[in-house]
Specification:
Radius of gyration: 54 Å
Oligomer: single chain
Distance between the termini: 113 Å
């Protein structure tokens, strides 16, 4: 019974193969016959048309000169064409002019009534073709050829039948052989491969049923599946790691680009800003050297004091690098007098204006105008605009600096009659590191390209706006800053009392009760000068410039307060603080850190090492006095 079932299955497979082969052969044969029939008749028409065209050309003279003998001789040449059985040449009115016909073939009709073209009639092809001379029809060519399509189809059918029979025989024998030894194992392997592809399950294995080449193929296939499975697992793991690493690198690169960009912006801004206060200070020093009155010297000192405060503020920004890289450049908002801010900007830029011989026209509001903002930053905005106008105006030019209140807002304008700007420059003038006119000023003084970009950012931090205008190259420029005005009076500076503000200069530090002070700093000038000031205030001061000297000085002085530089040459200030705590002479000493670093983590580290206070260089004497008054009284 098992054998019968096996034979029945084989027979069914064989029948399927035979039927498929037969259908394929029949379809192919039908297509071939159809194709041959169509092509054969097209060939007959094309061949007859070509021959008719040749006859028309060669018979044209005979028709024109009424020479039927010559025309008959031309037609007789068709005897070499076995397929053409009859031909004729007709005049324009359809009268037979000359004809030709094979033996036993009816001659062409005496008059031609058929239209131009071709048609198959009674197993023959009849073709009517015009004879044209000088673009005029002068006659007609008639051709009749045999249509052997039926005979050709019979021959093709016989060939197709023989091929079909032979193909079925070969297909049957081949199917029987392959079914037994090849097809079944290959189908099994194919099925496994299909399952592996659909399920992505590389644990699938094909069953080995023979020991021949097919068996080797199955073994190789199974081994390949195992290897592909291992490689796929490794590849997927690698891809996961690559995706994670790529994502991490992408975020890291983005962060680095942002940090680098912010760093470059900050360094450029710093370099630009630090130069601005230097010019008025140099001028003020020259005034002090040649001052003929106390009033001029006091005015020069005021300028230096303002500009030094400005520079200290900028250095504080440099120390707080982390805040800048996060884009958190802040302003210290208070109510300020606009006139004072504008005057400070004028003092900053006055040297370059005088150097280039410009005429500065200043127009301020008749009444005091106050704004809410950072006086240093606003002065920086206006000085940048004035500096830009001075650089990009030919020597001896005119610069306007005016302010007016319009509908509750202050509008400050800086104008010049300099080299002006193109429309393209106006579109990029406020971008950082972008300089108008290819970075070349009117007098060849190129900048860093940060002044206007910085001004725009600072104005935005004040909730205002800044715009640039120009009628074109050579027609000057105008910059307008628009910010809110406030009705209140300006805030008083915290570091000055009413008397000092009224007099325009701070009082000298008052002498207090003297203390024993240890001052340790490797900067000899700083330590010496600060020590002299403290001694002038009645304190007993010992100065040291390294850790070893500080220990010796502490043992001798028994200080109440010790100001320690964190960055000493032989040891850190933290290490020195630990040594002093171990000395009986300094066990109760109040420790104050001196450092150029003043970020929160620096102050936290000082507290962790026992420092009571943390002062950031440059140190203000009033802060030192405050430490002495507060910390010593609490100890």
């Amino acid at each position: 019974m098992l054998r019968l079932i096996r034979r029945s299955l084989r027979f069914k497979v064989l029948a399927v193969v035979m039927l498929t082969t037969l259908v394929a052969l029949l379809v192919s044969a039908a297509a071939l016959v159809t194709y041959e029939a169509r092509n054969y008749r097209e060939f007959l028409v094309n061949d007859a048309t070509t021959q008719a065209d040749i006859l028309a050309r060669t018979s044209t003279p005979a028709l024109q000169f009424d020479d039927p003998v010559s025309a008959a001789e031309t037609l007789a040449l068709l005897a070499s064409r076995r397929g053409i059985v009859a031909a004729a040449l007709y005049t324009l009115d359809g009268t037979l002019f000359a004809h030709y016909a094979r033996q036993g073939i009816p001659p062409p009709p005496p008059r031609l009534a058929a239209p131009l073209g071709s048609q198959f009639v009674d197993g023959s092809l009849e073709l009517v073709h015009p004879v044209v001379a000088s673009d005029q029809r002068i006659g007609t060519v008639y051709l009749r050829s045999k249509d052997d399509l039926a005979l050709r189809l019979k021959d093709y059918s016989l060939i197709v039948g023989l091929v079909t029979l032979l193909s079925l025989t070969v297909a049957g024998l081949t199917s029987a052989y392959l079914q037994r030894g090849v097809t079944a194992p290959l189908l099994a392997v194919t099925d496994i491969a299909r399952r592996v592809m659909s399920r992505r399950d590389f644990t699938q294995r094909a069953e080995k049923t023979t020991e021949d080449e097919i068996g080797v193929l199955v073994d190789s296939f199974n081994a390949m599946l195992a290897e592909v499975g291992r490689m796929t697992e490794a590849l997927e793991a690698t891809n996961r790691r690559l995706v994670e690493e790529t994502e991490e690198r992408r975020y890291a690169e983005a962060a680095l680009r942002v940090a680098d960009q912010r760093k470059d912006e900050f360094l450029a801004t710093l370099a630009h800003e630090l130069r601005n206060p230097l010019a008025p200070m140099v001028t003020a020093l020259e005034i002090m050297e040649s001052a003929g009155s106390t009033e001029e010297a006091r005015h020069a000192r005021d300028i230096i004091q303002r500009q030094l405060a400005h520079m200290v503020r900028l250095i504080d920004d440099l120390l707080d690098v982390s805040r800048i890289t996060r884009g958190k450049l802040t302003v210290q908002m208070q109510t300020v007098d606009l006139a004072g801010v504008m005057q400070n900007a004028i003092d900053t830029v006055r040297p370059i204006i005088d150097q280039r011989g410009h005429r500065l026209e200043v127009v301020m509001p008749e009444r005091p105008v106050y704004v809410r903002g950072d006086a240093v930053r606003l002065s920086q905005v206006f000085s940048n605009l004035l500096n830009n106008a001075a650089k990009y105006t030919q020597p001896g030019g005119r610069i306007g600096f005016s302010a007016q209140v319009v509908e509750g807002r202050v509008r400050v304008s800086v104008s010049d009659n300099g080299i002006g700007m193109t429309e393209q420059t106006l579109g990029t003038v406020f971008e950082m590191f972008i300089q108008g006119n290819d970075g070349t000023a009117a007098g060849g003084q190129a900048g860093l390209g940060v002044g206007l970009g910085l001004a725009k950012r600072l104005v935005a931090l004040h909730g205002g706006s800044i715009e640039a205008f120009s009628d074109g190259p050579g027609r000057g420029s105008r910059f307008v800053v628009d910010i809110d005005a406030v009705p209140a009076a300006p805030d008083r500076p915290a570091q000055m009392d009413g008397a000092a503000a009224a007099d325009g200069a701070g009082e000298a530090p008052r002498r207090g009760e003297g203390h024993r002070i240890l001052l340790v700093d490797d900067n000899v000038d700083f330590a010496t000068s600060l020590g002299m000031l403290l001694e002038a205030l009645g304190h007993q001061v010992r100065v040291a410039h390294d850790g070893a000297g500080a220990v010796r000085a502490a043992e001798a002085l028994q200080p109440e307060v010790a100001f320690l530089d964190i960055g000493l040459p032989d040891m850190s200030g933290y290490e020195l603080a630990s040594l002093l705590r171990e000395l009986p002479a300094a066990a109760d000493t109040v420790l104050v850190a001196l450092s150029g670093w003043g970020q929160e983590q620096d102050r936290r580290r000082s507290r962790q090492h026992g420092f009571t206070a943390h002062l950031v260089k440059p140190v203000d004497l009033k802060k030192v006095q405050g430490v002495l008054e507060d910390l010593v009284s609490e100890s």
